Amino acid sequence: GYGAEKGGDCDDAAATVHPGAAELCNGADDDCDGAADAEGAEGCKVWWRDGDKDGYGDPGATKCLCAPVGTYTATGPGDCDDADSLVNSGGVEKCGNNKDDDCNGFVDEEGAGGCASYWLDDDKDLWGVGTPKCLCTALGTYSATKPGDCNDGNATINPGQKEVCANGVDDNCSGAADEEGAIGCKPHYLDGDGDKYGLTAVTKCLCAPGGGYVANGSDCDDTDPARNPGVTEKCATLFDDDCDGVANERNAVGCAVFYWDADEDGYGTTGRCYCQPTSNYTAPIPGDCNDSLNTVNPGAAETCNGRDDDCDAATDEENSVGCTDYYVDGDSDGWGSIVKKCLCAASGIYTTSKGGDCRDDDAAIHPGQSEICNGGRDDNCDGAADPEGTLGCQVWYLDADRDGWGDPGASKCLCLPSAGTYDASKGGDCLDADPAITGCRSFFLDVDGDGWGKDSDSKCLCSAIGNYRAVKGLDCDDALASVNPVAPETCNGRDDDCDAQADEEGAAGCAQWWQDLDGDGWGGAGPKCLCAATGFYKAPNGGDCLDSDPDVNPGRKEVCFPLDGKDNDCSGTADDHRLVRMVRLDYSDIDDPTAPSVLQSHLESLGYQVILESIPPKKLSAIADLPQVTFLWIHGHDAFSMPAAHRTLLADYVNGGGTLFADDGNPGVWGEASAFMTSFL
Q: Which whole number is the average pLDDT over 22-50?
């Protein structure tokens, strides 16, 4: 009923709802202030502001609410940056963003997401030791990103260093000092046979030999300790003992000396010790003094050739092959006696190669001398003094009938007559058995049988004997019957008539040649009948009327214009073509003698003879025969009525060098024509 003294109850059906009632979190407006479940209502819960909606609230912004309202939705605090949903106490710390991602009061602390391991590095060589820390960046002495430093007090020692030979330190922290590949290491080679020499095929770079590896890798057979560069090469083996790439090379133990023998004659020059002949070192004997000739060596025979064939340091010595006997020539006449040596050339007192001098004390006596009638001396050393035919001998004839005349067919040239036999000084006895018969005549040697013999060869005979049959001499060629003093001279290059001249003027077969002094091919004086052009007689044609001027001869054309006063063509008249022919083609009945007379007078005043002619049209073809020195004229009106055939003839005349004038009937034109003709002439 109406028993309440105060109004304002907003839900009069609920006794717990009225102004002044405690607001409860029940969805009703318990205190009737117009708001249900207002902030601070009984039974409310604390909510934190979560502006970035990451589920974590701002610790400094809370409300006690019956339910989340607006940004107050977080059930707890823990957000240190409520504007960044990635930053809260439930977040994971991340390196590199300069944020306290997990809101623990630290930024990029150890263990943050994306951290890297850093090791303790006291020597700052970037290599660390001990247990690493996971840091976003180097921190203090935890600055090394690589572990494994075996000496953190020495920055030159760490796993990144190169091992260095011969310092006794494990530079690269590998657990061993001076291991394979260290700086300063040298190649070492596997030595399989233990001879301290290895093979280059298996190598290690070591600071010192060890482990079966040696410093020398030049072993050529690592299975045989007797073969290596330290042993001496032996000729007794067939292989390469000292591993130099050559088996049984020069100076091997047991070698023999072989000499360089380029010419392969078995003798050499410089020697080398080889196990067997090698290259050109093939000769077992030295001493070759010319190793480019196999005919020169100590075993060769010395030969006369200007060389030391036998290499004895002497050239062409006595008794060399091909030597010649040289004699002592006491009288220097070029002939020696019996003392001789076989030499290649004259030497010392052995000066002549001719022996047989029977008097080596008299230079006038020797085998090459002519025998002279001189009282019984043997001049030519043939064992006979003054024999038949001796120089200075006299012809003595056999005089069998003792009449003082000898048989011309039996004679000897003797120094003295042979008493009782060849003692007649006169030949010509035609019957030497009868002292009452004497006399002979000369017969000349006539080989060609032309009746003429040689003057230099005759015999005094009673009659012809053999080719001694010509009674006339003077034959200049007794091998040709066509050559003798009465033979006709012929153009053949021989002296046919034996007058000491060949092919003289007038010889048979000659040709006419004229004297040509000016060399123009035409002669003046002459002719002469000659076998060939001779001297100035060299022109085959005569008729040159001025043989001192090559521009004047019968082959020249007379020069008319200008007048030169010469008979150029040797016609007998100088300037004989001073004749000018003036020919008119007469096509009309017009007869105008004025024009020709003007030209005629003008030309005659210049010394020319002028002939006036006229050719009717029907004889126009005659112009082809007109000489060049012709002036052909035609009346201009006639040219228009001229037939085509005639025009062709005129064109041929002009093209051939002729001169054509046309007039128009005006006498004044002839003055111009006269001037032109004067210039042309």
A: 91
